[in-house]
Amino acid sequence: MVEHMKVKPKSVVSQKVHGVAESHCRTLLKTRDLIDVSDEPLERGGSNEGFAPTEFMLAGLVACTNVILHRIAAKHGVKIQDMSIAVDASFDRRGVTLQEEIDVPYPEIRLSIELTTSASDDELAPLKQDLRRYCPVSKVISQSGTTIIEEWAVTRP
Length: 157
Fold this sequence. Notes:
- This protein is α+β, with helices and mostly antiparallel strands.
- It has helices at 53-75, 121-134, 136-143, and strands spanning 18-21, 27-31, 34-38, 80-90, 108-117, 147-155.
- The strands form 2 sheets. Strands 1-2-3 form a 3-stranded antiparallel β-sheet, with no helix packed on it.
């Protein structure tokens, strides 16, 4: 009889993204079996065919918030019926325009989380606390010196 061993997932894994500069603004991005494009808007010399690199970072914060918040909710037995997430960031563009080096290009990001749930405020408290603890994108941004202000709007059915 063969005993089944539980396989422990690796704690640290490699993530790889490859980019090809198709123009001075457009970058073809590849990861796993996925392809995407980053580009600049027309007013900055791009062709507006994808998110700008800085928009990708902010989109990463939105997407990571979604994933981690759902995982935390499941862990605490909280059912989220509906959720939307938005960011509004203050961006100091002096660095990207080569005027001067900026240590904290994003001094402040407002992260707005709107969710529909029947959970009480007490049941939501650990979600609010754990989101900051476990979202890797939020941690990287916060540890760079950016203040992330979370604004929660809860609707109960």
